[in-house]
Amino acid sequence: MIYELAAGFASALTPWNLLMCFAGVFAGQLVGALPGIGPSSAIALLLPLTFGADPTSAIILFAGIYYGAQYGGTLTSVLISVPGEPSSVMTSIDGYQMALQGKAGVALGIAAIGSFIAGTISTIGLMLLAPPMARAALAFGPPEYFALVVLGLTALAAVGGSVLKGLTTGVFGLLISTVGIDQQTGVARFAFDRLWLLDGVGFIVLTVAIFGVGEVLSSVGKPTPAPITNVANVLPSRAEWRASRMPILRGSFIGFFVGVLPATGATIASFIAYIVEKKVAKDPSRFGKGAIEGVAGPEASNNAAAAGAMVPMLALGVPGSGTTAIILGALIMFGVRPGPELFEKNSALVWAVIASMYIGNLMLLIMNLPLARLFAQLLRMPYAWLYPPILALCVAGVYSQANSIEDVWMLVGFGALGWAMMRYDWPPAPLILGLVLGTIFENSLRQSMTLSHGSVEIFFTRPISAVLLACAAAAVLAPPLLRMFRPRVAAV
Amino acid sequence: MKLRAAWGELCLCLAFAGAGLFWVAIALRMQLWDGFAPASGFLPLIYGVLLIVLAMLATIVDVLGGRDASAEMPGPVGRPLLVLAALAAGVAGIELIGFCASMFLAMLFLFRVAEKRSMTASLATSAGSALVLVLIFRNWLGVPMPVGPWGF
Amino acid sequence: MFTRRSLMLAASAMPFLPNTIRAQAGWVPTREVEFVIPFAVGGGADLLARVIHKIITDEKLVPVPVTLNNRPGGGGAVGLGYVASRKAADPHTIILVNGTTQITPILNPAARTLTEIRPSMNVMLDDFLLFVKGDAPWKDAKEFIAAGKARPPKSIAFATGGTTDVMAITVFTKATGVEFNTLNFNSGGEALTQLLGGHVQACMGNPLEFMGHLQSKAVKALGVFRDSRFSALPDVPTMKEQGIEAPNFQMWRGLATPRGTPDAPALYWEGVFAKVVASPAFAAYIKENIATAAPVPGEAFAKFLQDQEKLYRDLLGKPA
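Output (structure tokens, whole complex):
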């Protein structure tokens, strides 16, 4: 392994491959920061240009775009509350609050450092554990995914303020997830014969609307703009670093494991990381008000998930996410047949890509710390100059995702809803969570029931599923039980 | 007084409950169970019922009941509505006069009318922002942004 | 249904049309051409469109720039709806069409159907194979069916990656009388993962996703739905060879212009697409994707689509 890794570094460190790696992470950073356009579009756009090139260089480029985008998504989330990528939605909750408190630089800094650590840890994981991890991921059938999603759904009430309001918006998100063609039957529902509703409400549309437009509308209605101070400091203080250390580590592991599972990805990983941080925090009430753990955990997690998604791709030849599916397609175009033997048959390519991931993450760290300082300066501008271009960016981003003007109209409508929700303290995050998890929740439920011939026992007799459901039950029942226990102690 | 502060929130609750009711009404006409597993209408029905119940509960408990005394009164709605209207007008203009021109006008309107900034600075910022967006999205990323009658 | 021979003949007739004939037809594009892709950036259909776009651009087959416009949504319905409403009879528009864009309107009447386009050229066909795990007890499709008949109905579970896979299973069920349990997933890749994990017993899919695993013997192919063996996989017997009367079932991908395109531009585009299919770059694409080049121009393509429509409607139980 040492020998292969050394050979990989030798290949990744050639000037051309270094340039490709840099071009990849730079392009990834850019498309990551833009809402709507994501790494998969960037790779698809570049793919025809790389035909005939060396496959190793091309895959280094594509991988760079993929994990680079996870860094880029943070930028717009923290600065203007417009998540550049679905996986940075959770970052925008506490990251934007930190920015409002004058700590945008630190938020971006800890995100970059956390992403670097997580990217490195998960690349080590990819290097050492890929084949066994990939085989373990195969154990996830429909019931296991169902249980995992149930665990995620227990967070509906946890991510916001009022439990009832959180549950309501969460169920509303689930409800929206049923719009469009039903994957199990191929027939549309709740689409009202509108073609543009056949694919349902886009996740990007809803997040940019609720977080981006909703936040703008809510901010212009507030009498005094938040004071912005000390934006230029990007290095966390000792206390901030101590608070972020463990969230970064936990986020790395959560992200890696969730990323390895083929049907889940960076978005769900970042949700789970946020929830875990909130559950383990001594004072969960700080979350949503600028807690640095709420930035460090999800950011580490989404970056680790990008490397995790490479595991099934490289070790099994099956896509670990939408973006890796495109990279797999690219491999085929280069005449490399993805399959369980990729590691052995094309070990030079695989190890060069792994080596490039160490280099690329380092490049991103070096690039992002000064960039964080630069972009944080943006917030010194009065909000009056910022929000009209922010709205135009939201429109451009949402349009570009599917070249659809109807999506932009949905942006306006859901933006108004987001404003109303923020105005009356209805938490927006559960709405997004419901939409993300709704599709996989329904599909895995129906697939499982089909598989078991209608028996729900399947969820409890399969060990992984049973354990995950037990965790979900504990997550729901533990807080009220603890609450019942505590006052009695106090009364004694 | 309390009720007046909350009327907007009541509307929001009603909207959620209404969406739930709508979903229930449609889901009841769909197939609920097919063979071994739930069919298309099953979960939408459950979501709809849940949403109605939750929205009602939220109304009773959070909005009408123990509303935080310290909760600040929501600010005025005038300016947000103006911005929303400008955004909607800008979106309506995209298909008529193209993305670039429409977003330029929407931004100019916001700078001049909503924010009362100077004409020169407003013109420069709107034009600059619109051009940068077109450069990135249309020229670099190849997004076919709608163009107006004069080709941009 | 088309025989391979007639496809070949049609193919060989087209690319060598002398330029004078095209000049007589008297139409060349005079402004930018829009190439509408009714699928999201990055999928298989999008990739095919980008390869075709690159061939057209690199070999300068068209004297004007060709821009790509992805209009994803609703299994191609959004893109076809866009062409129908904005681009009717506009010869400066070309659109990618495939089996999915034909199936969606059958299931969702709101979706625009292929009547909104003028078929120009089919370019390729994808095969369907019956896959099981490498260590499965069945040696061929006959044993597989025997196992299915010996157990209660729906005991064998299939994972599918889309509507076309479901239809292949319907073809199989109709031919054998065995009922299967079908679990639908988002993509062929996900279906393959479920098969490898042992959560389902079989998959019906295109060779592309399964090829690497076929070579490493992680999965094996029990049969292919075509009349003669597939040259890329000569060891896989056809269903007919194994006594299963399943029709030739392949998924087509082609190109079209908007409905109402006049004859002269239609002929022009047929000529361009014929050159695309004849190019070495396209041959390489076909080989890498383990597909079959199948150029079927104009009228013959329209007829082919009518036959397919009837077949799909029969399979889905939705007569016109």
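Residues 2-491 of chain A form one domain.
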